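Lab notes, practical 5.
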Amino acid sequence: MLEVSTAKELRKLAIMLSKRMECGSREQILLHNVHLIEEAPRFFIAVNLSITDAREYKNGIIMTIENRFGERCSSGNSYRS
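Output from the prediction step:
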């Protein structure tokens, strides 16, 4: 599981995941700061990734990110669930 504590880390992670994730793949991210949940949609939508789940976990939030529309999905790869 990937972990972030700041908005800057979250933005960098979103960019990295958009380049790395295969079409249809999922990653879980632990947000150590619950206020990052307010920033996350903007960062992930900007790089065409989807937030498919978010739940509380101890003092943070676990988010599931899925590549359904990103770079690797638009190059002829179709989304498969």
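Observations recorded by the TA: Helices lie at 7-20, 40-46, 71-74. The mean pLDDT is 89.
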